[in-house]
Each structure stands twice: as structure tokens, then as C-alpha cells.
Amino acid sequence: MVLSREQVYRLVAGVPERLSLTTLAALCDILSCTPADLIEPYRVARSRPTRGDSAGPAAPKRPTRARVLPDTGG
Fold first, then answer.
1. Where is each HTH cro/C1-type domain found (predicted)?
2. Rounded to an integer, what distance in angstroms lies between the CA atom of residue 19 and that of residue 38?
3. What angle (nearest 5°) sits at the alpha carbon of residue 45, between those of residues 41 and 47?
4. What is the Cα–Cα distance from 59 to 61, expressed in whole angstroms?
């Protein structure tokens, strides 16, 4: 496997947006570790509405109906 200078920089300098399984497997082989040693999962907490904050469930969104007009030949 060959990584470009830019790929190595993105892996080392910050948190990569995405990582292929091939690259992850190569890193695990090189570092003699498991994916669990390299990846730390996290959950983003969702804020829940407080009482009286909402007027009930939102109405489901529906697409706007299209109108088909006859061809005027123009």
C-alpha cells in the first residue's frame, strides 16, 4: 500500500473525515494493534425539548403535487 504525502499529513495532523478499510488494516499491521486501539467512538447527545417547548408532533412533510398541462404545440 502506498500513501501520498497529503494522505499521511491528513492522518497525522488531524482527525480524518473518512478512512478506507485497506488503510485501517495497513495501519493496524504496521502498529501491531487492533482497530479498537486506533478508533474512539463517541455519541453526540441530542437535546430533548423541555415540557411546553413544542406544540406536539410536527406534521409530516409532503411533496407539492405537480400539475400536468396539455401540450399546446407552441
1. 3-40
2. 11
3. 165
4. 6
- Which pLDDT score, from 0 to 100, does residue 68 have? 87
Please state the domain extents for the chain: 5-38
Amino acid at 10: R
Distance set, CA 70 to CA 14, 56, 65, 66, 74 (Å): 58, 42, 16, 13, 11
Output the tens digit of pLDDT for each of the chain's 74 residues. 888 898 889 888 987 788 889 999 999 999 999 999 988 887 888 777 666 555 666 778 888 888 888 888 76
Q: How far is CA 58 from CA 19, 23, 27, 39, in A?
A: 37, 43, 46, 37
